[in-house]
C-alpha cells in the first residue's frame, strides 16, 4: 500500500502498528521481504507477513494490507491498514 496523499485518505482507514528498536533490516533483506509481500507465488517458509498481507487485500481490497519499513541500525515497523468501517 502506498502512503496516503492527503488527510482525507488517511481518515479512511485504521492503522495498527508494531514498532521495534532492534537492529533493523539491511537494505537487501528489506527489498527481498517487500518483494515477497507483493509476490503472488505461494511460499512454504516464512509465510506470516506475506499471508497476512494477502488476506488483508483479499478481505478488504487493494488499498489495504501491510506497510513494512526498516532502517538498519534503527529498527523495523510493520503497519497493518484496514478500513475504518
UniProtKB/TrEMBL annotation:
Gene3D superfamilies: Histidine kinase-like ATPase, C-terminal domain. It comes from the Bacteria. SUPFAM superfamilies: ATPase domain of HSP90 chaperone/DNA topoisomerase II/histidine kinase. This is Histidine kinase-, DNA gyrase B-, and HSP90-like ATPase. It comes from Brevibacillus centrosporus.
Amino acid at each position: 500500500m502506498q502512503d496516503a496523499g492527503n488527510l482525507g485518505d488517511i481518515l479512511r482507514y485504521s492503522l495498527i502498528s508494531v514498532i521495534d528498536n532492534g537492529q533493523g533490516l539491511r537494505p537487501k533483506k528489506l527489498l527481498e521481504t517487500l518483494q515477497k509481500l507483493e509476490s503472488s507465488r505461494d511460499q512454504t517458509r516464512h509465510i506470516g507477513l506475506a499471508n497476512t498481507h494477502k488476506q488483508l487485500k483479499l478481505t478488504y481490497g487493494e488499498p489495504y494490507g501491510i506497510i513494512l519499513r526498516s532502517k538498519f541500525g534503527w529498527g523495523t515497523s510493520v503497519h497493518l491498514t484496514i478500513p475504518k468501517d
